[in-house]
Amino acid sequence: FFTIIVADKKLKKEEIKNKYDLHAKWYDLGSIILGLFISRKRKKLLENANRKVLEIGIGTGINLKYYPKNCHITGIDLSGEMLKKAEQKAIKLGLKVKLITGDAENLPFKNREFDTVADTLGLCTYPNPIKALKEMRRVCKKNGKILLLEHGISNNKFISKLQRKSEKTHYKKAGCSLLRNHIKNIDKAGLRVEEFKRALHGILYIIKAKPN
Question: Which helix (H) or strand (E) holds 202?
């Protein structure tokens, strides 16, 4: 497994998977508060999805209700327990969704397979986010789109200082980093940003990108 080092603490993918397996039962409840802030942003971003869609880090399927009707959705996640919740949501919504247990850094799909690739609040957890972004680029069609809604390091000095102080404890508890700069990582991964906005005091990154 790839590892990420934060404050001298290493977490392997298997450890991150286990955390989300344990959190799966309560994940949606914990997301309600966050959802009050970003549900409209999820909806607005994912309205841009079309045709054959891959959602990476689909989790419990929170986004499923936001996709347009013409989308054929495949979802992948490292946590099998989270996928069970996503399956229940898909059934309630009357959606046919293909759900796969897998790794964002090693996607089990062909090159240029999807019209839209989406990821919301996932890049904070992947041990190698640049590799995950390169995989998004690989599986996205040349004229396709990559839609990202992520939390990361704020451009507000006061907020970013608080994030740095909280990083060690938060990462150990939740398996996700508060300090990633997704715009820099996107550039390193060879993607072209078409639209970028910040929200929540600079913490939230809303990005539309394309394979470069």
Answer: none
Interatomic CA distance for residues 164 and 4, integer angstroms: 16
Nearest to 38 by CA among 182, 189, 197, 210: 197
* pLDDT reported for residue 21: 60
Which residues are bridge partners to 116 per DSSP? Answer: 53, 145
184-202 tens-digit pLDDT? 999 999 999 999 999 999 9
Q: Indicate the residue type of 67.
A: Y
Bridge partners (DSSP) of residue 140 are: 114
Residues in contact with 174: Cβ distance below 8 Å, sequence separation at least 6, in sequence order: 19, 23
What is the C-alpha separation between 49 and 68, in angstroms, rounded? 7
> 150-165, pLDDT tens digit by residue?
999 999 999 999 999 9
Query: Nearest Cα to 13, choosing from 75, 108, 99, 104?
Result: 104
Whether 144 contacts 80, CB under 8 Å: no
144 vs 112: CA distance, rounded Å: 9
Question: Collapsing DSSP states into helix, strand and coil, what is residue 43?
Answer: helix
Q: DSSP 3-state assignment of 79?
A: coil
- Name the amino acid, one letter, at 79: S
Q: Based on DSSP, count helices (H) and strands (E) in the chain, helices before strands.
A: 5, 9
Instruction: Give the C-alpha separation, 194 to 210, whole Å.
Output: 7
